[in-house]
Amino acid sequence: xxxxxxxxxxxxxxxxxxxxxxxxxxxxxxxxxxxxxxxxxxxxxxxxxxxxxxxxxxxxxxxxxxxxxxxxxxxxxxxxxxxxxxxxxxxxxxxxxxxxxxxxxxxxxxxxxxxxxxxxxxxxxxxxxxxxxxxxxxxxxxxxxxxxxxxxxxxxxxxxxxxxxxxxxxxxxxxxxxxxxxxxxxxxxxxxxxxxxxxxxxxxxxxxxxxxxxxxxxxxxxxxxxxxxxxxxxxxxxxxxxxxxxxxxxxxxxxxxxxxxxxxxxxxxxxxxxxxxxxxxxxxxxxxxxxxxxxxxxxxxxxxxxxxxxxxxxxxxxxxxxxxx
Length: 325
Hints:
The chain contains 5 helices and 16 strands. The protein has 325 residues and is of the alpha+beta class. β2 and β3 form a beta hairpin.
C-alpha cells in the first residue's frame, strides 16, 4: 500500500491494563500503567523484536523511545507483507515502467508510528497509531503483553507481578504469602470526542444528510437509487456549534420529505488546522465518536523507516497533548 509522503492519518485508541491470576484471589492487585512502561523500558530488549508472524506477513518492533519526562512510549512497528503485489514504477518523462523485483519470500514493508501515554487513572493509556501500514492496535497490545511476560521472569521487576495475599496468610518462613499476577491489555476505540467538543475547539466546514434507499430510478427497474445526499454549508462557519447542528437537523427531519434521512456526516477543521470528518447515526447525534486526524509534514517522509521519524513524532506529540489524560 502506497502512503502519501507529506501526511499520515492517525487513529486514537484507549488501552486498558487488567491483571489476572491463577490463584484463588478474586480481585487481584495490579500495578500502574506508568510503572509498567518504565519497567518495559528497563528491559532494554535487543531490536528488532518480532511481534506477530503469519505465513505471508510479519510485524516487528524496530525502534523505541521511552520519554521519561512525559512518561510515554514512542514505537516504530514495521509490517512486511508478502501478499502485497510488487511495486511498479513509471518514469513520468518517458512513460517507461519497471517492477521493483520482489521475490516470493519478500514482503513490502511499511512503517507505523505509535505513541502510548498512560492516563491519569493509572490503568488506561491513550494510543495514537498512524494508519496505512497494516499495523493494528492489537499488534500494540500484543507487544505490551509479550514484554510484560518477559519482565515477569526477572527478579528486578518482581514487585509488579507478586503481591501479598489479602487473606494475611503466611508462608513456611513466616513471611506474607504471595500470589502472582499476569497482565492483559484490552484495546478500544477512543470515543471521547463529541460533535459539541469537536466544533468548540475546531471549525465547521460542511455537513451532509444521507438517506440510504433502495428504489427504482428508471421505469424498467434496472437502475436503482441507493443514496440521497443533502449537503449543507454555512455563511459563518465559526458560528456553527454542535448543539446548533443537532437542533437544526432534528427540526429539518420533521418535514414530511425529510423523514427518511438516517445518517449525518460532518466535516470540520481540528485545532491543528487539519480537515477531518465524522459520520453519525441520526438517532445518536450527541453520542461520542472515534477520533482520527490527518497530520501533514513540511518535508517528505518515506513509508518505510528503520528509525522513528522526528517529523512524524513532532506532529503526533501535538495531537497527544490535545487529548485529556
